[in-house]
Each structure stands twice: as structure tokens, then as C-alpha cells.
Amino acid sequence: MMRLLIPFGIFIVLIGFLGIGLGLNPREVPSPLINKSAPDFELPMLADPGESLGLEDFKADGVVLFNVWASWCVACRHEHPLLVSLARQNAIPIYGLNYKDERPAALQWLRQLGNPYKASAFDEDGRVGIDWGVYGVPETFLVDARGVIRYKHTGPLTAEAWETELLPRIRQLREQEG
Amino acid sequence: MIPELGHFALIIALSIAIVQGTLPLLGVWLDRPGWIGVAVPAARAQVLFLAISFICLTYAFLVDDFSVAYVASNSNTAQPLMYKISAVWGAHEGSLLLWVLMLGIWGLAITLFSRSVPEVFTARVLAIIGLVGVGFLLFTLGTSNPFDRLFPAPMQGRELNPLLQDPGLAIHPPMLYLGYVGLVVPFAFAIAALLEGRLDSAWVRWTRPWTNVAWMFLTFGIALGSWWAYYELGWGGWWFWDPVENASFMPWLVATALIHSLAVTEKRGTFRSWTVLLSIFAFSLSLLGTFLVRSGVLVSVHAFATDPARGMYILIFLCVVIGASLILFALRAGSVSASAKFEWVSKDTLLLLNNILLTVAAASVLIGTLYPLFLDALGLGKISVGPPYFDTVFVPLMLPLLFLIGLGPLARWKKDRLPRLAAVSRFTLPAAVVLASIALGLLGNLSDIMVWLGLFMAFWIVATALWGVGHQMRGKGARGLSFGFSGMTIAHMGMAVFVVGVTLVSAYDIERDVRMAPGDSIDVRDYRFQFEGVAPHQGANYRATRGTMHVYRDGERVTTLYPEKRYYASQQNPMTEAAIDAGVTRDLYVALGEPVGSGAWALRVYHKPFVQWIWFGCLMMGLGGLTASFDRRYRLAHRVPATRHAGTAPDAAPGVPEGARG
Fold this sequence. Notes:
The complex is a heterodimer.
Chain A: H1 6-22, E1 42-44, E2 52-54, H2 55-59, E3 64-69, H3 74-88, E4 94-99, H4 103-113, E5 119-123, H5 127-131, E6 139-143, E7 149-154, H6 159-177
Parallel strand pairs in A: 3-4, 4-5
Antiparallel strand pairs in A: 1-2, 3-6, 6-7
Chain B: H1 2-30, H2 33-36, H3 39-62, H4 69-74, H5 81-86, H6 92-113, H7 119-143, H8 167-182, H9 184-196, H10 201-232, H11 243-268, H12 272-295, H13 308-336, H14 347-377, H15 387-407, H16 418-424, H17 428-443, H18 449-473, H19 483-508, E1 510-516, E2 521-524, E3 527-538, E4 542-553, E5 556-561, E6 564-568, E7 575-577, E8 579-581, E9 586-597, E10 600-609, H20 612-628, H21 632-635, H22 656-661
Antiparallel strand pairs in B: 1-10, 2-3, 3-4, 4-5, 4-6, 6-7, 8-9, 9-10
Helix pairs in contact in B: 1-3, 1-7, 3-6, 6-7, 6-8, 7-9, 7-13, 8-10, 9-10, 9-12, 9-13, 10-11, 10-20, 11-12, 11-14, 12-13, 14-15, 15-18, 17-18, 18-19, 19-20
């Protein structure tokens, strides 16, 4: 009898794991860059190829969001209204990394949907994206005043993610910096 | 109106399934013949309403009724007729409807072909199928109703995922589901036997043809999926150890073990509780596959749109079905098991080894598939398990199994002698060694030990199978070949053909990723591929860039290939449509990559030796399973008293001709 219960026992363990698995997100890959200095970069600005944008520009603004986007990216369209409303409320300075895009298409996109970014860097060949470990667009990094990556959100930013993941961290960072 | 009819028919089917799942069981328990008699008409009525529901959904696709959300998400007016129909099961909701329809069809088949089975037993089997149906119908209606309306209705639908717009994939899901769902039959038989507390050779005799047919569909389904991945994904691989593929492969391995274990239980009356357990495992793994594919717990290249609520439902359903079955097994298996002695050297031992190897193989696939989930659940990090693990674990398990395929049919039941086995392989073993060496000398390099091993196993299987055929026919001619024996031989030879394909394509395929401008050419083995450039091409619901590649051999034009990059309106990314010239000894495979400027393209040019043998081998295996299910003794089953116990079966007498039949 006990011997015959072995399959049932194994099954219960399996079900336990599957149950826990339901609550996990297998697509979420932790970034090794969290709590490390952000990779330095220097790129031309999207709006004006003559100007350049780099990590140093972020530091002047304190805690900032660095949002990776592209005009060809459908999911970016979903998160865009949220970014625009955050920018309107002056919730946090947002910088953009325009990733593997074409300049006219990207500018057209911002004209149509609104521009939430203080500035966007134009990463035409995706080099900076590779340094930052971008593997899908959109992605959003939270960078503190010392240029350290504090958090990374993969996929389109939602109001819920903003409330639960980003906002508490931003408050905490701002308190620390006093 | 029509979609509401479909929805309504589905609700009626659920009501009938509830009756089918409860009344007959209560009837057996309370001894009410009238309630027992409900099972057969209920099963037939259920399939009728499921068919109505399915037809209503198909109709909604045919008339482009985009007010049905499921149609709007998976079809549009430009979609060719064939893909409007295959879109019915192209996504989650519709494929569930197909699932329950298949379940109904298997139930109907049981009412038609099991007249020889005692009514009480059939009633139990149908009730168990009814209960499984209740679970899936509740799931469909509760979380995934394909008839949900969409207001306001869009003018145009979103189109079926272009990857799925392919003839191979149109028939792959029905085949696979017939196999998955077909495993419900041995499962229901096993549960019914446990409930009855009796398991005899008659039970096994009823189960075997059903298991064979379900296994055939599963084999075809998996092979079609692999074939589709080969030419549609544009990578030229035929198996990726992706979680979704593994989800279909695990039940196949266990069902293969079950087919062999059933042979022992029928002939010798042993392995009984093991056979019952395998029946439960096989169906449980197909349910687990459903969970893995639809719940989003694993990352896969072709998962369905996933939803944790659905995942939770299937998980609870798994708990109820599998948990209850395993508890029942623990309570009752003691009463059905029986032991009979057999010597170490015997067919019984070889089949035991076969079962151990197949079960361990299934377990290793299960562990590899779920390992990322285990680690993640324990907070130990994120990893993915890929081909290196599976290849390392799988090949050492398969080599002894392949050797057993040759040896097993030669051995005698119960008691055999090593010298006799050595004597019967006196010609076949050297023949396999010599033929493998000659073949390897012609095709490659004699120092490739793994290739030699693969070829040796294939020739060994074929040689022993032919020897077996010769032995069966001695003195009797073709009459000596029963359907059971022929089916087994065809399936085993199919395995040999499959092994040849896998071995040669793994060792000797050539993959060249090249940059080619119009007029450029490249030599791959004996073939010269000359690129003529690309031109635009307009398809029914896509536009394409089509390349032209002439292929020459010894200056003669062999063929011209037209690889395409297709742009579907609904998709951001182009779809690769590889061009393949398929042949017996090689496939020539060309896929368009990216344009690299000034008319030049990145191209993938592959030479795949013997790759078609992989799928031809699967075809033979499946047909072998089908052939065996026509064996005379299954048709004569109604003449056999149902109470006869296997251990005393007169045809269990030792001897190669009889033994080889198993």
C-alpha cells in the first residue's frame, strides 16, 4: 500500500511546484546591471544630430527614468500615453533611448503621439542598447543621481507597474538623497 | 444567431456530459440497469451537440462573422478558405473545442466498437470519459468561450498567425489531439478496471487496439509538428526540445512503454499494476502538456496566449483527475496485480528493460522541461535547459533501447537461453556490422563511431525484423504473418528508418550562411547553388520578396528554388518561407535572410542528407501501430469468455513464432 502511494506523493510535489510556477513570470529576466553603475554612453540627440546626450546629463536631474523605445515597436504605443501623462505631472524626468530606429519615423512618431522625453538619444545601430542589456523593446531603467541603475522594467510600462514597482523606489531614492 | 446556437449546443453537451459522468457510475453502484443503460445514448448525444457547436464556429469563420471575438482575432476576409477552416482550431478557445469534440468522438467510437465488452464495463468507461469531458467543457465555457461576441463588430479581422498558415499545421493539431485525447481510452479502461477490482487478459485485449490507434495519431501529430518546424521556421532543424514539443513527446514515450507493457500483461498476465499505472501516466502527461502549453509557466517559442486564471483552472483539474486516479491506484492496484515467474533470459525481461528505458527517458524529459520552473520556484535563479542536456541524457538511453528492438522480438516468453539467442543472431549481428561499415564508408568517414553505432542499430533492427518475418513464414507462407506481428515489424523498421535519418542528418548536414549578390554561386557538397536575385511577388493575403536560386550538379540543372520572405498585413516581422527540394538521400534547403545592400542577400543554404527519413520513419511507425490493431484476436475478442485470466491463456506457450507476435 505505501509503495503504491509513491506515484501520488511525487504527483503532489509536482503540483506544488506547478502551483508556485503559476505565480512566477518566466519571461522576467533579472538584469545583472541592477545596483551597478550604468554603462556610460555618448550619443547624438534624436531631435538634433549636432547635440549629444550622455549619462552625465542624467546626473544633473537626480533620479530619472531611461526608457528604451522605437517607432516600429507596437508595445511602445501602449505605454506611451502613460509616459506622456507622467511627463505632464512632472512626476520624474524621462529620457529616451531611441533604439535601432530611423530618425524621420521616430520624430514623426513623437509629433503624433506627444513627446514625454526631456531628450532622446539616437541609438541607430543599437550599440548602447547592447551595453545596457536591452533584449526587447520597450524597457525602462530607473537611474539614480549617482548614475547607478536601481531597477529595470521589461515590457510596456503600466499604471500598476508604475504604482507598485517604480514609485516606491523613486520615493525611497529621493529620501536617501534628501 | 448561429454563434448563439453553437454556444447553446456546447452548454447542452456539458449537461449531457454531467449525466454521462454520474448516472452510469451510480447505476453500477446501486444496481440500477436503467441508469447503466444511459451511458451509450448519452455519449452519442454528447458528440452530436459537440459537432453542432463545432460546425457553428466553422460557419462563423466561413461567413467572416467578426462580431465573434474569436473569429475577429484569427481570421479576415482575405484569408484563403483552407486557413479560414484551420483557424477554427488555430488558437486557444477553438482548439479546446476541438479537444472536447475529439473526446466525444472517442466516446462514440467506444459505443460502436465495444459491443463485446460487458455493458457494465462500457458504462464505467464512458462515465469516466464523460467526467473528463465535464472538466474540459466547464473550462471552455468558463474561461475560454469561443462564441463570445464583440461589440461593436470590427469591419475586418486580425488574421490567423501567419506561422500557422501552412498545410502541415492545418492538420497537425487535429492529429495531435486525436492522439492526446485518445490516451483517455486506456486511461478510462484502467480506471474502470480499478473500480471493478479486476484486471484480466480480456481487459488488456480490449485496450490494446485503442492504445495503438491513439499512439498512431500521436506519432503522426508529433511528426507533422516537427516537419512544420523544419520548413516553416527557416532554421532547418527538426526538433528543438522546446517545452511545447516535450509536452507532446512525454506522453508518446509513456504510451510506447504502455503498448509494450500491455503485450506482457496480455500474454503473461504479469506487469498488471504497472500497466495500469502507465495508462494513468500517459493520459496524465497529456493533461500536463495542456497545462504547460496554456498556463504560461514556461517560456516557449510557440505557447498559446496564456492566462493565469486558465492555468489555475487546469491545475485544479489536474489535481482532481490525476490525484483521484493515483489514490484509486494506491487503494486498488494490490487487488489486480498478479505475479508469474520468469527467467532472467526471456522476452519478459527484455520488455521490462524496454519499459524502464522508456520511462526513464520520459522522466528525464519531464525533469529537463520543468527544471527551470523548479529552480525559479525555489528562488535559485533563472536558467533554461536546452538541447545539450537532452542530447546528453537521451542518446545513452536510446542506444540500448535500439539494440533491444532487434533482440526483443527474437526472444521467447518466460524462459529463453543465451546460446539460443546467440544462435538466432548468428547471421543478423555480423550482417548489421558489415552493412553499417559499408554504408559509413560510402557516406562518410569510418572513424565516426557514433554514426557507425546509429547505422549499426538501424541495420540490426532491420536484419532481425527480416529474420523474424522469415521465421514466421516458414512452412506457412504469408499466412504465418498475423496483423499483430506485421504491425510490430513495420513499426520497428520505421524506427530503423528514423534512426538512419537522425544519425546522418545530425552528423553530415552542411549549413552555410552566406552573402550572395545576383550571379554569385556557392558549392555545397556536389551541388552548385547559383543566386539570380530577388523579385517582388504577390500572394493571396501577403506580399513577398522571392529569391531565385538555380541548383546544378555536374553542370546539369537539378532544380530551381524560390525562397520567400513574406509580409502579412497583421505582422511586423516578415515570415521566412524556405524553399526545399526534398529527395530520398538529401534535401536542398534555401532560406532568405536579410538584404545586405546593393542587391546582395544573406542566405542560408543547407544540404540535409537523409532528413526525410525522419518523417518517413514516423509514418511507418504509426502505420505499424494501426496494422497491429487489426489483429484477428481483437476482432475475435467477443468469443472469448470475459473472465478468462491471462496467466492461463493457451497462446502463451513459449516459442519464437508465438512469442514474436507480442
